[in-house]
């Protein structure tokens, strides 16, 4: 509490984050105060326990997978830049951005990047393929004990059958995109950030 | 040509007239008269039966026709739950939304103020904005720490000393009635001094609801000062753990002249013992009402969290009280993970003032067929509504403990129902 919040976030950092993620100045400061309020250890980074302290996230069946998405491979702490970079995936796509600067690299909240975020939730071992086992595990997380093993197995089999086009019995990222081409990803994977 | 149209006009009018008359006669005879007399001709049920026959015939024709042409009339039912890969988006979005903002964790830290009350502790973005503002702030510090704080500390020390001395003296009196009368006066006097020590400006509403004996008073909990604020206006028996040091001395002194319920740390776990002692106290009509804070922990005064059902199981009348602090003058919330008791009191005594409103609500009793949890929720809703606070079902214990797995299992069950339920939509 107190004046810690703004003094630790310098203007240059805010500018850099703005360029990288597309959030506005006030959104970044607001999310920074949220970051610091979650950071109980006050060391400028969040650990997995800090996320799990949010009750609404702890009861989410995929809570652990979502928390995992914030942490880069093999690391246990995420700093504010990493936090913002992950949250940027959920920024709504604005119409005026679509036409601006086609030569620049793809923004973090593009449709492809949103799909990549979801793909990574399924892909437990990060080998860029969703195997039958991985799909089963994620399904089990979502339904708990309410559906039998056989039913779950047949759901997984049918899903892979419908999506798999090259016959390797797993779903690659391109096959994933194809399956979801009719889904309104932009709306389903965006949240409103208050200004 | 007036005379050309006249006969045709006449004919038209006459036709219209006749049809309207016939229409109204039929209406009157077949619908209105029976309705008035309460008699039924059975026209509506005949109508319904005819319609059903027509529908059956139509369905039969359609099915025959579809069979001839070999078409599917209805989509086939699938016997398995339908899963779509897009389902994950829902959980994903909910999860990230709760990371960005959630209802619970923000109740355990002080609330943000829209305007600035010249205390750096309540402003997140304190920067040097202008010279005038900084000078004003500096002046504020001078006044608060130089004048108000010493004054308040003196008052507090006087109040506590008087409490200790006078209650011990009163305890020596032989006459029980005189003792209880005097102890009331002593307690009220000392609490009034303590209230002035904090510069607490309290507005009591509905004071006619105050009661004297045999009941439990429940209130929402923001700070240990709640006790002083409520005890300033009436005499309560307090319930709490036995502390050591200064608090312990005060507790022992208070017990000498009036009855309070202090538990040893080990006894707190034993719910039956707790309930029995509370029940015994309430049953004794000569004893003062008990003051309980069912949330079990301090919440930041923007919401009321789950009430523990212990005090609602005893079965006596409950008198709810709502306390709302005005955050503009000083934030009264005690964030026990950040500040210890002494630093908290110092902060309190160096704020401008503690302004709060206390509402006494009408007494509530447990109704037929209501269990303790439902009763507790009803009381909680009444307190939240009066104080303008958000009524949450989350447990205040989440401040320190993890949420129970049972809630996650609820979410999983709901999703499974959606999966299986999809086949009925198709």
Walk me through what this model shows:
The complex is a heterodimer of chains A (195) and B (426). Chain A contains 13 helices and 4 strands. Chain A is mainly alpha-helical. Chain A folds into 2 domains: 12-90, Recoverin, domain 1 (Orthogonal Bundle); 106-188, Recoverin, domain 1 (Orthogonal Bundle). In chain A, strands 1-2 form a two-stranded antiparallel ribbon. Chain A has a two-stranded antiparallel ribbon with strand order 3-4. In chain A, helix 10 crosses helix 11 (149-163). Mean pLDDT of chain A is 85; it is low at 1-7. With 426 residues, chain B is of the alpha/beta class. Chain B has helices spanning 2-37, 43-69, 88-100, 131-171, 176-197, 225-231, 245-257, 265-268, 271-283, 341-349, 372-387, 405-425, and strands spanning 200-205, 216-219, 237-241, 261-263, 290-292, 303-304, 318-326, 354-360, 390-391. In chain B, the strands form 2 sheets. A 7-stranded mixed sheet of chain B has the order 1-8-7-2-5-3-4, with helices on both faces. A two-stranded parallel ribbon of chain B has the order 6-9. Chain B is elongated. At the A-B interface, helix 3, helix 5, helix 9, helix 10 and helix 11 of A face helix 3 and helix 12 of B.
